[in-house]
Every structure is written in structure tokens, then in C-alpha cells.
Amino acid sequence: MMVEDEAGKRVLTVPVETRKTIVNPNGVPREVTQNAPPVAAEFLPGTQDLVVFSNAGLTVHASGGASPRKMSVAQIFPEITRNILAQSMAVSRDGKAAGVAFEVPGPEEDLVTMISLADLKVLWVSRISVTPRWIAVNLDGSEALVAMRERGVVRCAADAPQAITISRSIDDLTSVAYAPDYKSAFITSARANAPVRQLALPDGTEIWTAPPAPMGCYHLTLLGPDRFAAKTFDNRILIWKKRVSPSAR
Length: 249
What we know:
This protein is mostly beta strands.
């Protein structure tokens, strides 16, 4: 992965991450090294420093040439000895924390944790019952919303070691984003003709819906207090303004 500035000058090169894992072919376990491509990457606000999340863990790459700072999955969850799968990451608006979501294969619950980017320490952990698909983090990393594949949206935070359900009524969710004032959130679904919905927080009451996207949406991005965009599964970008029909670009 490479990062370039507006003039096309390369300011950062991100090498391929690797992780050591146990494979068990023919009943004989052995350790191997596997590539761990990025699952998510975000710039720290106002900088060219890049936070990268993968099955290897979390890495902060500084554009000024400093050595990357890393926190492996084993450092995040030292009690878990088998492979767990990176699902989603988001950085808080103040740039001081990153929320990450993992799938834990097997009967155990999946995990969401907030990590301090200053010292790469775990701030809090929440457990959720269904595989996480997308995470959104609030202003300071004190809480996160997670869209799950099948059971709606949950709130994760230091005071919620077991995630708290916000909305159960919508399935096949693909992304979630806080509104700029953090008093509501927008969600998208992969279902055909599903609208983008706005939910009040913390009770999850549906307070607004956008006109439906025929092929379903994912990767919701807020463009302002009353405008947002989403990628559709038929490779379009739809831009909505509240109470105005979407325009395809």
C-alpha cells in the first residue's frame, strides 16, 4: 500500500503485514507465516499518519519516517490462543483511539475493543453475539456502534462489557455511521430496495429513511449534517440530502 500527497509525491509506503498461525493438515499441527492484507485503513485526523488493521493486529504508520508502532492480536487478547479474524476498524474523531472488531470462530462470542493510539493499550472490551460487519466510533473512543450481519446494531463501551442492543429490526446490515452530533446514527443494508435509515440514540427509534437503493448499499460516508453517500452493490455511489431523492453519480 502506498500513500501519495496531492502532487503525487509518495509520503508513505506500507509493507505487507504477516502473522504466525497454526495449521493442522493431516492432523499434524505446525506453525506457518501468512500474509495479513489490510482489512481497514484510516488516516489520523489532520495528518498523513495511517492506521492499518489486519489479521496481524493494529499498526500506526507515521508519514515522517518514524518506525511503525504495532499491537499484535496476541497483545490485544493475550488470553486467546487460536486464530481470530479482523472484521472492521474506525478511528475516533479526535484521533486518539481506534475501535476494532474481531470474529472469534467457534462457540465463543465475538469481540470489540477500543485501543489508545498514544500508547497502544486496550481501553475497554465488549462482547457481541453475532459476527460484526462494521464499526463506528464516537468523538473520543468512549463508545462504538457495531452493525452485525443478522441482528441489528449494538452499542459497545466501557460500561457495556456485554454489548447493548440498539436495534434488532434490520438484517443484513453493511455499515453504520454516527451523525455529526452523535445523537443519532445512519445504517445501510445489503437487501435490495432497503432504505438508508436514521436511528435515534440510545433507544434506536427510526426517525428518518432515505429513498431505497435498488441493489442495496454499503460503506456509508457522511458529507455534512444533512448529506451522505453510500456505495451500492451495482457499483454506483448514491448521494442523499434529507428529504431529497438520491442522485446517482
